[in-house]
Amino acid sequence: MNKKISFFRLSLRKILESFYDKIFAIVNISLVLGLGIVVISMGISFIKYKNYVEENSQYLYQMAYFKNVNPIDETINNIITDNNKESRLIYKTDLEITKINDVDITSFELKLELFKSTNNSFLMPKEITSNFEVIGKTVIEENEIILDYAYAAMLGEILVKEYQELLGDTFRIGDSDYEIVGITSIETSQKILSFMDPGIFANYNFFSNEGVLESATIDYNNLDEMVLDYNLYKTTEIQIYESIDEIKETNLASLILSTIFIALGIVISLVSYGIIQSSVNQTFINSLSFISILKIIGIKNRKITIFNFSNSVVLILFSYLLAIPLSYSINFIINKFVDSKAIFVGFDFEMFVIDYKSLLISLGVAIFLGSISFGHQIFKIKNLNASSIHLLELEA
Q1: How far from chain centre, in Å, is Cα 207?
Q2: Do 313 and 183 sit in the same domain of this protein?
């Protein structure tokens, strides 16, 4: 028992004595691992960016079907009923808007359009998720009107007022007055125009004159559903507006960039193997006389291996622990000089953020490299004899 205690105490003292010699190697390894953590985090950020875009640009998972030549009622009804999808149908009417307040606007030949959607809401679920906004109300009741920004800006010029001040004003349509209760924001108008024309809309459910179905915007759950319907109906006489290629390009670009940066970060981390191996070898050579004495007095290779293993653990552990604050420091410096929000215009997204997964990947790389180095040392110890010790001392 005393022999075991003295062996471990002696080994611990040797490890502590050689710790000062390892400081330079620990700093170098930690710098390499820290840089690897930053690069791997960038790769993970590209995956996050893809998910972020999907969450904040749900409107991309919409397709708009426009009447080209033949009526589209049957086709749209099939799409909606077969898949139980959310939709907004737009009907053209002959109902003319003659006045706004007491101002005659018949010369502009403005026609009322009707929308039909779930819960009487003009904005669809994926548009709301994508932060589309309506100034005022989006759920339209009887004798209420919602304006697209383009029309609101034009009417604001006529009445010499800001377009937001049109809320509460009234349109005369036939013998009835309709209150303006909602106006799409500028940003919403810009986005929504890719799927429908600007217009002046009332709720379809409160009109007996149904009009002609002109277009339909439909929400899809995923890209596969979009592609399926697009391939099914693109050969018909319906004009389809979609973002399938844009979604595919975003997904592919994110996948390629994330793969490149994660692989590059791992390669950078692997570079530290040379420093690890060099330091462990140097420690091994410096400990040759101690190891020789241990072998002479009959200490088994297994125990000598534990001593060498402890040296490797100390090197890897301290290097990794130091790499963590260094990676955050490198990331902080990058953020000082690079504004990731300016790169991703329109998205409040931080690219340069240390992700915990990168810390785990770096730890896995460090353990892997330490294991290889340790395995090499086991082989050396097993084959260690008087002649090999002499040769190793000459190499040192």
Answers
A1: 44
A2: no
